[in-house]
Design brief:
Elements: H1 23-31, E1 40-46, H2 50-60, E2 67-74, H3 86-89, H4 93-98, E3 105-107, E4 110-115, E5 121-133, E6 138-144, H5 146-149, E7 155-161, H6 165-181, E8 189-196, E9 202-210, H7 224-233, H8 235-239, H9 241-246, E10 253-258, H10 265-275, E11 280-284, H11 292-301, E12 305-309, H12 326-338, E13 345-351, H13 359-362, E14 370-373, H14 379-389, E15 394-396, H15 400-406, H16 412-426, E16 435-437, H17 438-451, H18 453-459
Parallel strand pairs: 8-11, 10-13, 10-14, 11-12, 12-13, 15-16
Antiparallel strand pairs: 1-7, 2-3, 2-5, 4-5, 5-6, 6-7, 8-9
Helix pairs in contact: 2-6, 11-12, 14-15, 14-16, 16-17, 17-18
Length: 473
Amino acid sequence: MSLSDFNFIPKDVIPKDLLPKDLRQKIHDHMGKDPSTLPIVTEQFERYNQPNLQKALNELTAAKGRESTILGIQGGVLNNLTGVALSDLVAPKSISHFVGLGGAKEGSVQYTNMVLDAGEKLPCMVSGLILVKGKPNLTILVRGLSALESVGLGSINLDVMAEDKNSAEEFIREITRFINKYNVYRGKLLSVDTRTSQFGTAGSTTLKFHTLPEISREKIILPAELLNRIERQTVEVSQYSDKLKKAGRKMKRGILLHGKPGTGKTLTAMYLASAMKERTVLLVTGQGQQMIQSSCSFAKWLEPSMVIIEDVDLIAQERSTSGCNTPLLLELMNEMDGLADDCDVLFLLTTNRPEILEPALASRPGRIDQAYEVPLPDSDCRRRLFELYGKGLVLQVENLDKFIQRTQGASAAFISELLRKAALFAASSDTEEITITDKHLDEAIHEMLIAGGALTKSLLGSKEVGFTVKDSP
């Protein structure tokens, strides 16, 4: 016999054991006593922490000695406004009806997919009730502030009920410890963004994952001693961080990579991120420069970390300059000053125009501790660049020394484009492999510098290349 057999019978004459239990009764049965008398502890989590919270709940509610049941909630006048609180669900019926919650009942559990690193999707509970059997029994309500979320705000609230307040607080401490240990963002490449509301206003802060390509040391074509010095301030400090901390050495530090466009500053930064896999990387570029304070806060939360600010001259021009963005400059300096010396955060700044940087940023130890010029490649580096960018091609160049000489003053980006264009000229041959000859390099040089004109030279970082018309094939 089922409840459908009693559809025509008034509910007051249906046997009580066949009536569906409301949520309050289920919580009552689970806790073994009147739930309105039990303590509830509430913890609030920012929206970006939702995947961390979900992973913690998945793990801890299924831990040894615990079993859990998940129930959904639907209805209730306040359900779409601020989320029904656990105290509302367990209130006596007369009170819940008075405040407009009488319609709250069991329904579907609501999830939302959160995108993690490498495109992984994690279903995260937006609202739901978790009944945990164990020592002690727990009742947990996950509730999102759905109305606020629609305007780009909101957070996730966690209500935890236990027989005593200490047990509820201890479970929340378990959640916090789990998040700190298994944070989904730690060791990843991230950028900070602000979720825009439906009204176009700034809303909650979000963290976006990026894919970091594997960049080996061999791809960094710099003078050997320069690369060693850069690694000493970055990779080696990370390698010996525990020993340095014990010795009371300062861990917060800043380095500046400067040089002409196309010399490899960004590639070097990406290599350092690859070489320090345990270090969380916060990218600050373009519009992200408006998120300096948030980026630094996340860097502290996720240390050891590195904050990469590309083209820092856009926000850190000397304050006497008319185009200086003073508020952002001051914010950057304040954030760098505000981190404790033992906070393992590395600031890596890049610029093409070091001469216009604010001296208070660039010339003050504790903000920028070391500046490295990334130079245009010398003849040895240019030879290595031809080898690097020639991989996958057959180089049958009779006089490579001639082209190494002719590219004096060219950037690494220029040589990369030179080999790409030469490959295009050679691709029309009948051979299966692309074979590059002197003729193809001559044609590529002519198209880039003679046909392309001054603008092309500027864009490819080759203003100083000593080409003339007579160099054309």
